[in-house]
Structure formats: structure tokens, C-alpha cells
Amino acid sequence: MFALMALFAFSAFILKPADAEGDKIVGVWEPGHGKAKVKIEKIADKYYGKIVWLLEPIDPDTNKPKVDKNNPDESMRNVPLKGYRILKDFVYKGNGEWAEGTIYDPENGNTYSCEIKMKDDNTLDIRGYIGVRTFGRTDTWKRLQMKS
Amino acid sequence: MKIRLFLLAGLLLAFTHVFAQQDVDDDDEDYDIYDSFESVDAKPVKRYANSKIVGLSPQRFVTLSWDAQLGYDMNFSPLGEFAPDSDPAPGETGRARFTGGMRLNSAIPIISKSSFIWQSGINFMDVRYNIQDINILSEDAAGLAGILNENGLRNLNWTNTFYLPFNEFNFMIIQSQFDMSGDYDFDLQPFNTIRSSFAVLYGKRPNERKQWAVGASRTYRVGNVNYLPIVMYNWTSVDRKWGTEILFPARAHGRYTFNPNSMLLFGYELEGQSYRIGALSENGNSFEIRRGELRPRVDFQRRLVGYFWLGAQAGFRYDWSFDADNMPNAKEFFRGLFGNQPFAMRNNLGSPVYFNVSISFVSP
After folding, report:
1. Domains of chain A
2. Contact criterion met (CB < 8 Å) for A84 and B50
3. What is the ipTM of this complex?
4. What does the pLDDT read at residue A2?
5. Domains of chain B, residue spans
6. Under an 8 A CB cutoff, do B20 and A48 touch?
7. pLDDT of B331-354, one tens digit each?
8. Is A90:A116 a contact under the CB 8 Å cutoff?
9. Residue B357 burial by CB count (10 A; 0-12/13-18/19+): exposed, middle or buried?
10. Which DSSP letter does residue A78 get?
């Protein structure tokens, strides 16, 4: 009985209303260019997004699954893009905004500061930037779901 | 039981913390299931042509550069009226030992979304002259060599560029530019001498290695105002080593990429504006040097650190035009390439070697 009460208390502690709001971002999303699908998930108290699908999964130069060949870290250049975490360390700030994270662009190997704003339940505005928000660009991502 | 529960929670947190540090998800997820994921919205997702292609030289947000020309001869006609095809005897000569100065360029994103980009920038160019061996050969000489030696020339402009993609392939670019050019100091010069330039382009980006566009422009790049067609053609080879960056006739470059951190551009740029000379502008007139120059060059660009790049240019500065017009009430007129309105001065400059060194804060 005591264990159940402790579990309930623990759950109540970790499942705050803010967490429920923050968890709205969890799911599968498609960036504006449509060349990938990204699964956003919550790990501990932060949000991460990994590539789970590629429009062109095979590298035409090698005829093998695409790897992160533009990564500035040479040791990462053979890592498959599928499964690669391109969104990292996002914290929910309230009002449908996630911040303090980074986004990685496999096309050029650059990592940017990033903020995410949920326009509606199925649309995200993702702004990657360098240093200050001015030097950045906003992309719109759409929520995906499994075909019924 | 309590201890076990907290141990479990602690282990869970520790595990997820370590897991979160990794760039790669090493679980055994079945990625094939994502083939069947589709948009929640009934309407299809609108996609837009990217404003760039792969392999382009970095787009510069802010650039600070220093431009220098080696020595050359200057021949200025006397003041008068000279037909465009005339070649009057010099009324004044001199030797420019040095021409150049600092330049500051900016293109700051005001709005930057997939569906619309607006960049705005203030640009400033300071050209200082060290002119020696000045010879006055005519009593009608304007004394231009002395004025340039004393004041130099400056250009201050405000440029706005709008990129409007219509869909995944087609786009439009609109650019406006307002220039104040002259030998002014901190007091600037009358606002009715501000000259405007515009460009409109419509194009296509068939794939991530090519984009082209055609359009029209009103430009001062050859000194006088002109209305010219424009062709843009940016291309990158499959191996990303070679490419072109062309916005004809303003500039055209080939590109060779050594590696993602360094590249060489080779080609030319047309540079010019209409510069008001204060001492020769009387009774509300605007006496303007129609400066236009062609710069064939090589341009080596290399990443210094992060988003800061170094640029080093070398080439020739060919004199296209350094003639002058005296415009009543500063009112601009169109001579074009074939007009016959007389010039107030016909001038010739030698064509020296030039160098330009820059540091830029660039877009990824």
C-alpha cells in the first residue's frame, strides 16, 4: 500500500500539467522540405528529435544507406542518418514554446541554436539561428500520424 | 519496497541521462513503420523552393573589407559639353598613387521563413585618393584631381532583398537599393541626389544543385542609370567541386571548392554609382561623376572560425566610365548605352591591379 502511495506521489511529481503541455510536441513530424520525418520524444525532462525516415535513404555516390558524411567530427561520418538525433536538449518553457535546444543540419554539418513554437496542435515553427535570433531561419513542420 | 522504488527511479533517470547525451539512437526501432506515416492535415503540405543551392559560397550577413588599387594615370577633360563619342584633350592630369578604403556591407534577415525572406542592409564604401603630379593644362579645368585628393568619394546605400517562392520550384526575387554617393563628409548631401536601383527576377530551382532566373533591372553599375536584362545562373557539380555563381551583367564567377572550408571564385564584377561633387554643384545643379568599373578577379574565400570567413581578392580595375554630367535640379536622365546627350566632362583612368581583403560573418 505504501509503495502504491509512493508511486502515485512520484507520478504526481513528474507528471505536472506543464509536462503534459510540453509533451504535446512528442510525435512524428515532417520538415518543410519533405525529405525526412523526425520523431520527437521526451528523454528525462528534455525533448529530442531523431530522423526516422528519409525520402532518399540511399546515397547515390555509394549506393549504401546515407551516413552523416558532412559531420565536422570525422569519427561521426560513418554514422547512419536514420536514427540520428538532430534536435537535442529542448526544454518546455510554457506557452507552446520549447527552447535551449540545438538543431543539426546534416546537409552542411552545422549545428544551430534553436527554438520551437507550436502554432497549432499539428504545426511547429522551428527557428534555427546563430548567436542571436536575427541571424536565423524559420521552418514549418507538420505532424504526421500512421495511416489508419 | 520504498528503497527499491527510488533505486528504480534513480536508475531510470541515470539511464535516460546517459542516453540523451548520444547523437544516435541505438535502439532497435523498426524504421519501416514510418513509411506509412502521413500528414494529420487533410490538405497537402505546401513546399517552397529553397533560396540557395548546395555548394554556393557563403551568403554574407556582415562584411568588413579593405580595398586598394595600385597606381594609375588620370586624364580629366575641361568643363564643357562633349558628345558621347568625343575624345577631348585633357584639361587636367594626375597620378593616383593610392585609391581605396574601408567598406562595410550588411544583409540582415528581417523575416526569414521557408515561404518568404526579407533581408535589409546598410552598406558604406569609402574611397580615398592619394593623387600626385597634378597638372592643370586648361583654364577650364574643373580641378577634379585636387577635389578627389582632398575629399575622396563615399557611397552609402540601403538595400532590401525579397525572396518569394511560389512552390517547390519557382520563385521571384525583388531588390531595391537607394544610394547616396558623393564627396560628402558627415553633413551628407541633398536628399534629391539619392539614386534608386531596382531588380526583379523570376526563376526556377529544378534541383538542389541548380537555380536560374531571368529579369530586368534599373542599375547604376556602369555609372549612368541603365535598364538592363538580368540572368541568374547558379550551379554546382555532382561532386560539389565546381560551380557557377552568375548574376549577369552585374557579376559572373566560376567556383572551385577545395573543401567545405575554402573555395576559389574567378570571374568579374561590375561596380559603379553616380557621385555628386559638391564643389562643382552650383545653383541647385548636381554635378555627378558617373563612375563605372569592371573588375576581373580571383577571390579566395576561407573559413576562419565558426561562421567567420576571410576573403582575399586580386584582379584588375578597368575604367568603364568616369565621365561627368551636370544635372539641373539634380534631376536624373536616361542616356543608356546609345543616347547622345552631351557629358560635362570626359575622363579616362588607367587600369591598375587591385586587392581586397575582407572578414565576413556568414550564413551557414
Report:
1. 2-144 (2.40.128.520)
2. no
3. 0.82
4. 54
5. 60-362
6. yes
7. 999 998 788 999 999 999 999 999
8. yes
9. middle
10. T
